[in-house]
Amino acid sequence: MPQDPRSAILAAATAPGIWDVLVIGGGASGLGTAVEAATRGHRTLLLEAQDYAKGTSSRSTKLVHGGVRYLAQGNVGLVREALHERGLLRKNAPHLVRDLGFVVPAYNWWAGPFYGIGLKLYDILAGKLNLGSSKYLGKEAALERAPTLQPEGLMGGILYYDGQFDDARLAVTLLRTLEDHGGVALNYAPVTGLLKEDGKVVGVRFRDLETGREYEVRARAIVNATGVWVDDIRRMENADAKPMLSPSQGTHIVVDRRFLPGDSAIMIPRTDDGRVLFAVPWHDHVVIGTTDTPVSGTSFEPRPLEEEIDFILNTAGRYMNPAPTRADVLSTYAGLRPLVKPADNADTKEISRDHVIRVSEGGLITLTGGKWTTYRRMGEDTVNRAERVAGLPERLTVTPGLHLHGWSEEPRPDPLRVYGSDAERVEALPGADRQLHPELPYTEAELRWGVRHESARTVEDLLARRTRALLLNARASSEAAPRAAAILAEELGQDAAWAEAQARAYQNLAQGYQL
């Protein structure tokens, strides 16, 4: 039986000494900051309360994009920055990011010229890192690209290009990259308090959820990158800290590939609530979303609202033929966006998605806002600030040209493509020839890899984020849970009762992803 890798990670995290940079939060912003710090040579520790990308960072629309909608809002600076980062990520993780054509259908005579001009500006802002030039399509060409577009009244469309990726797999890749550069990361280690001396934050107290034991660790710079939970950490320093965020919920549905059989995505530029709606091919399925619903509270498991599901299906039904129905939904998921409060009471869809860095009187550095596409830039800006705040050596960033773990331009079929250069090692593990479930693309070997090399600790970690079984088909993933639990128990040296409890917990969770 393989040795449980967690014990060595926990020992490294709690070893005597002072870390240069301690990052709280293992989503896009936290992992990006930790990789930035470690690659500059700073001793870096990351603590995650649940699992990497458990929250918002595994629940995106699966796009690496500049933000067409932000261009319409006039936020040219944010779009230019995001397009630049999109190009860098495409170069630094070609095994995870691919170019994707988007068809914007035109059902009015003015729509083609109107959106065409805006998307030409999009091309120009991308500069040398542009993925492809936008162009006008006639009706036949638009239907060739997106055969399930509603043909009645269709006059043509605009084709433009953005990037597509697997969000949770990028998070795992950043985790591996952090480790490659000497950083340490520990999941299931929630921070329970901040250590203060002379009014300054000098460390944190955290609990190991697997043993219940508490530890204290010290660091010169402490970064709060906990997404929609940043205010909880801020209140550990100052109970009266005013909330920074106005969280918003985004919901998606996943349907069969027959609803979008071409090689292109569809972008509906203006829905009834003023947002855009995407239908995106992803892992041989189709993701349709998203919504923008203000919420008052935060949850590790936000649930789609009935009105959000109805909105997505009704909007998609106007533009897609055949139209997906509730019976066609294989999975549905919701994520919470950490939107920074505006000065006035602006609608959440109008709030900027730019990132914000704030430093408290005690030196706690809080990073929030932003989006996956700009994760690297968020990390760079945060470490620049951390070096100044903590008196660390100021060093130049290397991440603009940093190949992420598994970097490979060799084309591999799904599902092994996301492992890049590790794919052959995954295939060498036991179970590489055994499919986990007839309706899922994954093998048993991928689960063993997730436990041995990617810090997976639960069936949910394996089926929701190391593989994407939960999002592709929630019912099938639930049926696969007992076998996944048996493999996990075997890898971690646990007994049958433990495996049964793991499977049952996952199946209860998966019910919330089914209509």
Q: Explain this structure to me?
A:
- This protein is α+β, with helices and mostly antiparallel strands and 515 residues long.
- It has 16 helices and 18 strands.
- The protein has helices at 6-13, 28-39, 68-72, 76-92, 111-126, 139-145, 167-180, 230-237, 306-319, 375-390, 423-427, 444-453, 459-466, 469-472, 474-492, 496-511, and strands spanning 18-24, 44-47, 63-64, 97-106, 135-138, 156-165, 184-186, 191-197, 200-207, 214-224, 248-256, 265-268, 277-282, 285-289, 293-294, 331-337, 355-359, 365-369.
- The strands form two sheets. Strands 3, 4, 5, 6, 11, 12, 13, 14, 15 and 16 form a ten-stranded mixed sheet that branches. Strands 1, 2, 7, 8, 9, 10, 17 and 18 form an eight-stranded mixed sheet that branches.
- The longest helix has 19 residues, at 474-492.
- It is globular.
- The protein starts with 5 loop residues before the first helix and ends with a helix.
- Residues 396-497 form the Alpha-glycerophosphate oxidase C-terminal domain.
- What is the arithmetic mean of pLDDT? 93
Query: Gap between N and C termini, in Å?
Result: 39 Å
Coarse structural class: alpha+beta
Poorly predicted runs: none
Which of globular, elongated, flat, extended, rod-shaped describes the shape? globular
Strand element count: 18
Q: Note the beta-strand portion.
A: 15-25%
How many helices in DSSP terms? 16
Radius of gyration, whole Å? 22 Å
Biggest beta sheet attributes: 10 strands, mixed
Portion of residues within helices: 25-40%
